[in-house]
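User: My advisor, Dr. K., asked me to get a structural model of this assembly before our group meeting. I'm new to this, so sorry if the format is off. These are the inputs:
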Amino acid sequence: HSIVLLPGDGIGPEIVTQARGVLEAVASRFGHEFAFSTHRIGGIAIDETGDPLPAETVEACRAAAAILLGAVGGPKWDDPSAKTRPEAGLLRIRKELGLFANLRPIKLFDELADASPLRAEIVTGTDILFFRELTGGVYFGESGSSGEGDDETAYQSMTYSRREIKRIVRMAAAAARERSNRLTSVDKANVLEPSRLWRRVAAEVMQEEFPDVNYDVVLVDAMAMHLINRPADFDVVVTGNLFGDILTDEASMLPGSLGMLPSASLGASGPGLYEPIHGSAPDIAGKGIANPLATILAAAMMLRHSLSLNTEAEAIESAVAGVLADGLRTADLARGGVAAVSCEAMGAAV
Amino acid sequence: HSIVLLPGDGIGPEIVTQARGVLEAVASRFGHEFAFSTHRIGGIAIDETGDPLPAETVEACRAAAAILLGAVGGPKWDDPSAKTRPEAGLLRIRKELGLFANLRPIKLFDELADASPLRAEIVTGTDILFFRELTGGVYFGESGSSGEGDDETAYQSMTYSRREIKRIVRMAAAAARERSNRLTSVDKANVLEPSRLWRRVAAEVMQEEFPDVNYDVVLVDAMAMHLINRPADFDVVVTGNLFGDILTDEASMLPGSLGMLPSASLGASGPGLYEPIHGSAPDIAGKGIANPLATILAAAMMLRHSLSLNTEAEAIESAVAGVLADGLRTADLARGGVAAVSCEAMGAAV
Ligand SMILES: CC(C)[C@H](C(=O)O)[C@@H](O)C(=O)O
Ligand SMILES: CC(C)[C@H](C(=O)O)[C@@H](O)C(=O)O
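Assistant: The format is fine. Below is the predicted structure of the whole assembly, which you can bring to the meeting.
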């Protein structure tokens, strides 16, 4: 299995190194061979090649079985008038590989239960699987500007096609069948034309192909509320790119530990891309204190979704639960006088 | 002072009636004259005139000193293929009256402290004033559709001009000066062209006109997180229409009582529009159990912002605090065996 590593910026290299170590342990324990190759993306790619996603990176990704990404971005490349930025690399690789579905599981860790900012009686039982559409919507709409002085105007078009809506709704509905058989679609159909198409097409898909799945729709503003006051009521949630960006980040606070949450970006075929949902954390980069668990859990998702190695994925997940049960905590998780372990120590323990 | 009442749909008429009663009490106590007139908006206007915002309503609003709105919408008018919908009335009145700034204070009520879904140590001290841009952005962008079959595509353009950004940032920055002198601007400048213009123009305004105000920028997805895990860190927050819709609704959960939150929509001049932030709650409409306090607090905002009657506004606000201290609770607020009072009883008590 050839695996492309894209460490990226900030803490990216540190956390990817630990995840690689875990994958190597899996390989030797279960008798697999993983061939790793490392490539550039993001700010470091801009610095070294002028392009946040060099062509050779894309080629390597296309040829791989799966891709493990650290994080991209940082203040160094934040100049709003810069020609290109690290995030452009991330957006382009999603598009180039057709990774239209971003899966983000939001689940509480029993060991970290008191870390949630929400009261226990509200957050207990939360277990949501988000499907965020990742290669359409306003992110990839036509953009530009016109006018001068006070009339200077910038625009970007929010766009969805029936095809784009169908395939993500189908993927989410199929996942719902494997879980509690409930799907919630989130839109802003009372205001936005693409949301009205989304709502119509989603309803058709559900009626025709998934009549057995319990299905409802919620407006994005209402969903932003529900995630705070009744998060345990949701199972699988499907939504567009921008709404998914905001809602999954909101939801990521519920477990109280951003450092624990992985994500997977999948296409119809070809390699999937796996990454922690947290960013490049430039403030702690190079200090060796980052939490590698989200990246390690992303590696587990990779084994499951791209390599069909379910037992191996579960082995990683229970190893993570195990080190937490043993009391190991990186700085972001350490509470009440517990001494924090380093990124490397945490990776080694897993 | 001529005041237009727009009760609208669902619980709208019930809550507006109570707010009117409170305004009448203010008039007689402080020796003012308020001339009320009631007009149609939303679903009821569609039913009776075919138009969610009849011309006579717009005219009456233009001639008024201020406008008090209940709520619009309901399942009756929710058909996604309907020609028009109640929300269209709301969007149009904002636009027609140039109400470009939506002010939403989010503040905990001591009396309801344990109602928050957030843990007390996180939510304590939260006191945010949102400025949501209300007449621009994707809400009012060009929209349409094209293509057929799987290629059928719908779009709507997210647009901001320098003029639109300047005036809302100025209003928010001026408000920050009257509070803790801190302003946070929220955008998605790493992806969206209109957000990049927003970020550039906001920085210019702040540098040139408000160098004394502490200013920072946060991405919308990060802000969705911060509102949950460190809401007390923010003072005044300014953002675009769609982001404001989502973030203010998210933030509205923090006090744990949607029924307590008012909002004001203001233009450069002319009448302001005041309303509760909650919706028309069709499930409890007509039962006499709705909470009128948000609408009553909206009436207080109206006295302050449109009629410059600060003492009178404070009188309403302390009356609301008083009835809460007396233990009165409508059904939405009643906890642990407290008997709920009716909408009318709550209004009368205030
Ligand atoms: C970095 C940025 C472009 C990206 C996004 O908004 O998609 C990030 O926030 C994410 O959610 O993966
Ligand atoms: C009803 C709807 C059009 C409206 C909006 O999204 O602006 C509402 O959600 C609000 O926030 O006032």
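One thing worth pointing out at the meeting: Chain A has two domains: 1-97+270-350, 104-258.

User: Perfect, thanks a lot.
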